[in-house]
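protien #1 (seq + structre)
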Amino acid sequence: MLNFIYYPISAVLWFWHKALSFVLAPDSGVTWALAIILLVVTLRVLLIKPTINQMRSARKMQELQPKMQALQAKYGKDQRQELGLEMQKLRKEAGVNPLASCLPIIVQMPIFIGLFHVLRSFNRTGTHMGEIGMSVQETRNTPNYVFGVDEVQSFLDARLFGAPLSGSIGMSQDAYPAFSPEGILSDFTRGNIIAVVVPLMVISAVMMHFSARMSLDRSARKRAQQPKKAQSAQAQQMASQMETMQKLMLWVMPVMYLSGGFLWQVGLAVYMFTNNTWTLVQNILVFRKMDREEEEERQAKLEAKRTTAPKPGVKPANPKKGRGAAKASGTSDASAVAGTSNPAGSTPAGSTPAGGSSAVSARGDDDALSDGSATAAGADASADDGADASPSTAPRPGVKPANSNRKGGRKRGKKKR
């Protein structure tokens, strides 16, 4: 039923065994163990990018916590559908996919199950649940997925520190003869299997614990750096549940691993040891990378604030005030244009020019008749003086020209009367 998993796993294991056989003995337990280790490396290399994306998604989810808590406080428990839609919209805008954080675990589980089945299928003489109960000769002459008969016999005859790679602590002694070409009692005991499997299991469980603790401590440190805000009762309950689950990961998973280890083959113990070692080292390196990225983002935000902040002693620019000043400047320019449309020296309609007939009208008729020649000469002289002084006495643009003759004429008229 799961052949779509079993065949690819056996193919990768077969490839690495063939590649290592060029430099190592094909029937050596070290060669087969290295093939299993390289199977783990192949899988985990393919999962590097999804793992980094998982951690980035987790970081974004942590940054969205204040907004998510605000939505929870807004909708409460009575509007779960609206809350779900708003949460989905918020995650979509932030580019966060909750399923991406589960991808590495989802992928590794079928690999683990598939490798367990492939390693157990090398020896099919058992009669327990899921075992076929073949004879020794049938087992040693039956292919195992992509492995031919020669590879099957090579795997059964291989030893790693005196233990067969498909042997387990809970294996019945009736299956032991399949590990020898003659079909008799083999050259190992249950103690040999225990001496290999138990240390690998204990070390793997310890590394699993420290990997979970490293992740938990980092999450706690990130939460402590965030500003504390008042949380709703629902948000506090969710945070408490999350913290409880993380603490369970510290102890429950390693204990479960140790309790189920008596069913695992030596090859599967090698797989788990390699996988947990990779996880621990990868977490150290990736967490450092994530910390550098977060520090760079923080510095970039601070630099952006510094560049947009006003300099010391400089008043911040007011855009509204700037628009008002521009509007006033436009009004004054329009006034100036209107003022210059009436140039100096031109006489508006109905006005009396300087040095004109106003001076003549201010005089009496008798003086005009007796002193006609003198008046004409004075008028010519006044006209010449007015022409010379017109550039300096011209009114500025926008300023109404002063009419000095009107006031003087009034005074002279009063004196005449």
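ok now protien #2
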Amino acid sequence: MGVSVDVHQVYKYPFEQVVASFLRKYPNPMDKITHFLNLFLITVVVTLTNCFLSLKKSTLVILCWKKVSILKVPNIQLEEESWLNPRERNMAIRSHCLTWTQYASMKEESVFRESMENPNWTEFIQRGRISITGAGFLNCILETFASTFLRQGAQKGIRIMEMLLKEQCGAPLAE
């Protein structure tokens, strides 16, 4: 069956600043789990346009070395792919879990784009979906727990982005 979590946030910073902060997000000391992260950049195509680093497509595999004994896996691996279109001022991100796929599938799709409300702001839209399998009648209960976990993780990610933006770019832009 599966559950979905939708998140919408407007950052009061220009698109270029938000994307640059997002691409520098890992690792950071504000997120406890990032202390355990090792990042492996698999593919990157980079060009420089108007003094703005334009990442056309990147694939990032994130390894969390925190042992998850209940799942009997030594680490958690996530794969994240990003596609940036600086001309249209949007960036699409897809991520999914590579670990414990026999128990669950977890996917996220996100978009950063210029805000319709104010072109100097950036909209962030994210949809996460998790489906638990292999637990029989407990699947539904575990999915409910997982949706809470996804929602809290999304809100934490937004708080971290806001703190990074403020730290790297100063106060947000006024209306």
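The first helix runs from residue 15 to 23.
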